[in-house]
């Protein structure tokens, strides 16, 4: 079943085209990888789905409903969550406070159940011992986990991960791969932007490739790996 | 999240607060007019400071609109004073302030940082100028006579407004609203993405806190028999809540209350012996606060305790 | 005819506004201080000129040469001793902007009170070149033409300074991109003090001119500060030349409103101000 799809999604900033006429779909339970050289429009694309930006034209549907141009908090309440390329945790709050904000506003109304939900997500990302530390005192890798836990606390059905792996060492990268698979195993659909090919090729069911704002290729990892167009784009002619 | 130990602490704090209010209620009975007037001043500045800080503290916005709200309340009384009973007037004063805050808030949702400060300063001066123009074209004069109320009436009304304003602030801070406000101040985009309707939270808080400022203006103006826009919308009221909150310590409510109480008493002490120098001394105090104890009185006490 | 009146009036007012704003723009654009006491320096320039004229018979045009150099070191030291220290204590840039604005509010009190003690609250005025001159059918007071001439001269020299001299270019560089300016060897702290001093001087000079045309008192400061803020936002925060242009534009707007409904002049400027902040906060030339 298609959980999320879009047609003709376009975004112009003045005269600059960031995303051009992209058609896409995401099936429920998939892990979709979104790749492309720097400046290809990947984060802008995420911004269009999450509501941070409104498309110049085009339509985005989620579970059949038109979510084009809705505000981020409305999109969150419809069960889409995301992380950010540059981590946006709340630095002067503890890990617990960061995550419980997600459950308080994104999914639960009662303080007690919100609290339980937060604890569960903190346990899931393996930050339980650090739950009372200030978020700004954590390593970047741990801050990313906080962001994931906070996003999960809003009980999303679709999770957008923006370069989760950037700046991590190989051991941490493996942990993230395991975490992403565990998230999918919970029934959450994942779309992830990544530059690290190892990660993308390893866990994606399908890959979409953007270049200069346009979708230039789409398919399974092996199809993408052997696509002439994609190789050209990454290695130049 | 409150634990059982916290609940005990909360109860004893509540008991202390009720005791203080009860004691204050006796002031007009036992003390001279001078003290009644002093307390009214303390109440007034505390409402201003706490109302300002409830929104601006966690979000980091610098609002200079307090003068606009206070002055609006004052002019509601000046215009409608003869026509309606005083309690109704005070409510209308609060409502006028709330309306102004909603309009200004809606207009400035996307404005941040120093621009927001300038916008609110422009609002205060703009409302002042507009009412001034309106007064001159309607009555030909710049000032206006106001109905009078006894010191006792003003005192008890201010006490009620103070208690309600503090209660509002306390409830906002302790609720999930308060947590949301802090998150908006730290990382607004992330807050929006986890389901917080940032615009609604900002607007409601800004408007709710402004209500008490307007109500305050409505009642305190009855202490003077005459008002004009220079006095009602003085730029002093725009900046002082910020200075007092910072002076006391921005982090918690106790700091705000401490800051306004100490500052008001200080200005009272300086006003009588040095009527011509008090602005000078005030200015020096303000500058010294930032130079020598930027974390406020509360910060000072904390450091002193640790030493 | 009316158009000419409005345009000349606009240039007159605009010239003064441009001068006011240029100083403020230097202080905010380079030193990053939103100096709410800027108007008080204007007031000091105005009041001193009055006293020098009335007590010693000093020609206001000569006062220009006194007020400017006297206010420069005051501004320089204020930045060096006060605002630099606040910058260190504040930590982040945003906190510094807020704190320095509040500190300047304290300065406003101090300066205004000193002025009140020195001069008392009364409005003061003196007559200088108050006779009218016939210009293209309009009768304009000579002092306004002289003031316009001086303002334009100062403004133009300032403009040349910014565009042609190496120090001027360094000032513009520091206003646009502080880190970059440091990387090419500009001593940024010294630059902050310098610009703050220049800003105070320019304010004082504007005050001298204002005293030749209007009555003055220790309270004239704040409305002028707000006008300076409006002009700077209109021109583009951080763009010093933009503030010169913005001043002229605002002068023109002011002149037009003056012809339609004189008592709404200030209010219309505030409304314009808020509209700019809502629609295009970076102003005409801002980044």
Structure notes:
Chain A is of the alpha/beta class. Chain A has 2 domains: 1-79 and 161-237, Rossmann fold (3-Layer(aba) Sandwich), CATH 3.40.50.300; 82-155, no CATH class. Chain A contains 9 helices and 10 strands. Chain A has helices at 42-50, 72-77, 95-106, 111-124, 140-153, 170-185, 197-203, 221-225, 228-235; strands at 2-13, 16-27, 31-35, 57-62, 65-66, 80-82, 158-162, 189-193, 206-211, 214-219. The longest helix of chain A has 16 residues, at 170-185. The N and C termini of chain A lie far apart (38 Å). The model of chain A has no long low-confidence stretch (mean pLDDT 90). The radius of gyration of chain B is 19 Å and the shape is globular. Chain B has a two-stranded antiparallel ribbon. Chain B starts with a helix and ends with a helix. In chain B, helix 7 (151-174) packs across helix 8 (176-186) and helix 12 (236-248) crosses helix 13 (253-271). Chain B has 307 residues and is an all-alpha fold. Chain B has helices spanning 4-25, 27-30, 33-59, 66-80, 86-107, 113-139, 151-174, 176-186, 188-193, 198-220, 229-232, 236-248, 253-271, 278-292, 296-306; strands at 143-145, 226-228. Residues 1-5 of chain B have low confidence and may be disordered. Chain B has a domain at 31-235. Chain C has 11 helices and 2 strands; from the N terminus they run H-H-H-H-E-E-H-H-H-H-H-H-H. In chain C, helix 2 packs across helix 8 (188-213) and helix 5 (142-164) packs antiparallel against helix 8 (188-213). In chain C, strands 1-2 form a two-stranded antiparallel ribbon. In chain C, a hairpin with a 2-residue loop joins strand 1 (132-135) and strand 2. Classes of the chains: A alpha/beta (237), B mainly alpha (307), C mainly alpha (287). Chains A and B meet through helix 2, helix 3 and helix 5 of A and helix 8 and helix 9 of B.
Cα-atom Rg of chain B, whole angstroms? Answer: 19 Å
Determine the strand fraction of chain B and express it as a percent band: under 5%
Biggest beta sheet summary of chain B: 2 strands, antiparallel
**Average pLDDT rating of chain B:** 87
Question: What is the strand tally of chain B?
Answer: 2
User: What characteristic shape of chain B results from the CA principal axes?
Assistant: globular
Compressed to H and E, one letter per element, the order of chain B equals HHHHHHEHHHHEHHHHH
Quaternary state of this entry equals heterotrimer
For the biggest sheet of chain A, the summary is:
6 strands, mixed
Structural class of chain B: mainly alpha
Q: Strand arrangement, largest sheet of chain A?
A: 6-7-8-3-9-10
